[in-house]
Design a protein that fits this description.
Layout lengths: L22 E3 L2 E11 L3 H4 L20 E2 L2 E2 L1 E10 L2 E5 L38 E3 L12 E3 L5 E3 L5 E5 H7 L2 H6 L6 H5 L1 H5 L3 E4 L4 E3 L2 E5 L8 E7 L2 E7 L6 H4 L11 H18 L2 E4 L8 E5 L4 E5 L3
Parallel strand pairs: 6-7, 7-10, 10-11, 15-16
Antiparallel strand pairs: 1-2, 2-5, 3-4, 5-6, 8-9, 12-13, 13-14, 14-15, 17-18
The chain binds zinc ion.
The site of zinc ion has 6 residues, from loops.
Length: 310
């Protein structure tokens, strides 16, 4: 059993300037597109901490997972070059959008899209945007202000894929209640895609491109999926919000406050961790410290995570 490597892997992208990092999964080139890091109080995400505590000295209580007693969450999306396909997995929090509740995504102006040209990709080149789920921090850059109070697709030549039960839930009465916390981001980030005729409601095991497919893992949200990429004998799982923080490696049963179906989310998280511990697949959660890519192995308590070098 290799011990976890807690060494910081922080590479500040300099506000969208400086080097852009990438790694390969077989022949697929992956560019993490970093949006923001933030430091919520642990109890903001983990209500379990009101009655239980972290293990003293555990790897996830330190950098890069935790800083000064606050959990460190990274917000990034992933740009994939798969042959001649250009695929974006999740679309960040977005710019210039009104969000409630002290959100880190309220009326922001972050250099997210500016990173694409440095990967050699124009916005027009993106052919597919995949949403792992429809939370506020995964959809925002899908649309941009049209200058007239409306919103239009950011990537003019892309199809935008969302799993049908996910779309159905967020546009239901239950979904409307869930949107009260942040404000109705479905209205400015998803419905304009439908109105433009570029939103595809797909099956939860949809094949996106050769070697790229969705895997159903409902729980974090009612139609949550992750994205499996397989190329030249290598495999990576873009796990979205299946897990948010290192503590969930030790405690897969800890769902976060914002999991819609916490019990199902916990079951899916454990299943995913067991899968990657057995297969050695690369696991890439959306909110782990940059570059959020690493390998999972079993530990005395739960699992550990070893970051790749970039
Ligand atoms: Zn998220």
């Amino acid at each position: 059993m290799s011990s976890p490597d807690p060494a910081p892997r922080w590479v500040d992208t300099g506000g969208g300037e400086g080097p852009l990092w990438s790694f390969r999964v077989g022949d697929v080139e992956v560019f993490p597109i970093r949006e923001v890091d933030y430091l919520p109080a642990p109890t903001d995400f983990f209500p379990q901490l009101e009655t239980e505590s972290w293990t003293d000295g555990a790897f996830y209580t330190r950098e890069p997972f935790t800083r000064d007693g606050r959990i460190l969450l990274n917000q990034e999306a992933h740009l994939l070059k798969v042959g001649d396909r250009r695929i974006l997995v999740d679309a960040g929090g977005g710019n210039g959008k009104a969000r409630r509740g002290g959100s880190v995504y309220d009326r922001t102006d972050r250099p997210f899209l500016e990173q694409f040209p440095r990967a050699g990709v124009a916005l027009e080149d993106i052919d597919t945007v995949v949403f792992t789920h429809l939370h506020v921090d995964h959809v925002g850059f899908a649309t941009s202000a049209d200058g007239d109070g409306g919103w239009v697709p950011t990537f003019p030549n892309a199809r935008y894929l969302v799993v049908r039960p996910e779309f159905d839930w967020w546009t239901s009465a239950d979904g409307a209640r869930a949107l009260e916390r942040t404000g109705d981001y479905i209205a400015d980030s998803i419905l304009p895609l439908r109105d433009a005729g570029v939103l595809d409601l797909v099956a939860a095991d949809h094949r996106v491109a050769p070697g790229v497919r969705l895997v159903p893992a409902f729980g974090h949200t009612p139609g949550n999926v992750y994205v499996e990429v397989e190329s030249a004998g290598k495999r990576a799982l873009f796990a979205g919000d299946m897990l948010h923080h290192g503590v969930q490696l030790e405690r897969p049963e800890w769902s976060i406050r914002y999991c819609v179906l916490p019990g199902d989310s916990a079951d899916q998280r454990r299943r995913l961790l067991e899968r990657v511990a057995d297969t050695g697949d690369l696991l890439i959660p959306a909110h782990f410290p940059f570059p959020a890519a690493g390998y999972v192995s079993r530990a005395e308590r739960g699992f550990t995570y070893t970051f790749i070098d970039v």
